[in-house]
Amino acid sequence: MTTPPDALWLQWLLGVLQSGQAALLQALHAVGLVPALYGQPAWPWASRLAGDTLLFDLGQARRLALTLGLLVLALVVAALGLLWRRRRVWLVVVAGLLPLLAPWPQWEAIRVAATPASFHVSPTGFEAGAIVRGHQLYRQLCVDCHGADGRGHGPLAAQQAVWPPNLAGPLLWRRADGDLFWHVLHGMRDARSGQPSMPGFADRLSADDAWALIDAMKALAAGQMLRQTGQWLQPVRLPAFAVRCAGAPGRQSGAALLGQRLRVIAPGAGQVPTPDPRVVTVALAPASGNTDLPHVDAADCEAPQADAWRALALVAGNADDPGALAGTQFIVDREGWLRARAAPDAADWQEDDLVCRAPSDASPSPSAPASATRLTALDGLGSLIARMDAEPVRYVKGGLVH
Ligand code: HEC
Fold first, then answer.
1. Ligand 1 pocket test target in 188, 201, 218 with most atoms within 8 Å of CB
2. Measured between alpha carbons, how far is 44 from 28 in angstroms, rounded to an integer?
3. Residues in contact with ligand 1 (CB, 6 Å cut-off)
4. Domain 237-390 adopts which CATH fold?
5. Which of 28, 107, 250, 391 would disulfide-bridge 358, Cβ 3.0–4.6 Å?
6. Each residue of 127-159: pLDDT tens digit?
7. Is pLDDT of 361 > 70?
């Protein structure tokens, strides 16, 4: 049985593991004990603690939580001992005993191999320009092994000692971004034989390029998952891009819209969206520079950058033909997650358009999209919004869970 990964205490535990180690690293860097690499402190050990296994091993997770609790208690008791002279001996003895009594978890259950960049954080902000640039690099350097769709069937795949993994599944979300970054720059070795398995690209790519590639691979993977299963099995953010909004002169960053529900439209022929007060409507400028497409009167904002269209085409599974995005609409929740997508010819929002949803129904839905039930109590958009609000995207380290 798997642990419900959204159990609050478990999320908290994983959060403590992650931020505790990150804080330790920052502290070591601040006192000059560890150097910076690619602009961020380098993790000095070959292992780190990670919660990935804990999601499946509730027993170990409980032991770890209890041990951490007892260690904190030991620190408090030790601090008291420093202050309270008369009881000092007793308090120090108790503080020393507590860690011995703790039910320490098995080291192997919480240890994973680390890279110097394990705790590096991507500086790109999932920006549309980075995604598009990363995709160009991917096409130049990576498709021979990983394939245009990321599924690992490039022409050189069969010659590799290890078959390239499927990058179009959940893999990129299971890894720490920093580890992916390191593997792209410095390659990988086969865990068993120790032989090089994936080549490194540090001689051809800058750090910015590598981060851009990670964004591009995630966007590509999201699009492939959507094509194959009809859902974004891993939650995807709306790529960041500049917008120009009515009533706000000049360009703003799309981040200014965070906190509001967005309807993002790739304008197509035949479709005239009506204004809707429940959403802020953002119209994308066509990637092709085709200016014949209709102006979207209902739009509150425009995204003039062609990269915004291209990045969303990747996320929507139209990597090879960005023009096919025309007519597609997206709904973004207040936290910035892409939640729903309507196909170009859709007349109204339907339940099946909610393509980023809670894990209980994250398995590919067998019902054909065409025969989707139209919800009657509210209109299509109203019921989508109700479900989105009822099922927010939750964050669990070691894997994002809807
Ligand atoms: C010569 C073939 C080849 C090329 C070219 C190649 N890869 Fe790989 N890649 C592999 C193989 C093989 C693995 C599996 C290695 C393993 O698991 O030991 C892999 C693994 C990966 C992984 C998974 C890393 C992980 O943490 O599990 C990522 C991400 C990746 N490659 C990205 C890229 C990117 C980005 C490029 C282009 C800049 C690229 N690869 C180019 C062969 C290749």
1. 188
2. 10
3. 141-142, 144-146, 156, 160, 162, 164-165, 167, 175, 179-180, 183-184, 188, 190, 197-199, 201, 213
4. Glutaredoxin (3.40.30)
5. 391
6. 999 999 999 999 999 999 999 999 999 999 999
7. no
Q: For residue 180, how far is its CA from the centre of ligand 1 (angstroms)? A: 9
Mean pLDDT within 205-211: 98
CATH second-level architecture of 128-229?
Orthogonal Bundle (1.10)
165 exposure class (CB count in 10 Å sphere: 0-12, 13-18, 19+): middle
Tokens representing 391?
């099922």
Q: What are the boundaries of each domain within the chain?
A: 8-113, 128-229, 237-390
189 CA closest ligand 1 atom index: 18
Structure tokens belonging to residue 378:
């509210």
184 CA from centroid of ligand 1 (Å): 7
* Model confidence pTM above 0.85: yes
Q: Are domains 128-229 and 237-390 of this chain identical in fold? A: no
Report which protein residue has its CA nearest ligand 1's atom 36.
142
> Strand 280-284 vs strand 262-265: parallel, antiparallel, or unpaired?
parallel
Per the CB < 8 A criterion, the answer to whether 154 and 74 are in contact is no
Cα of 198 from ligand 1 centre, angstroms: 5
**Half-sphere exposure of residue 154, counting CA atoms within 13 Å on the CB side?**
23
Q: 386-400: per-residue pLDDT in tens?
A: 888 888 887 554 544
Kindly indicate the confidence band of residue 341, based on its pLDDT and cuts at 50, 70 and 90: very high
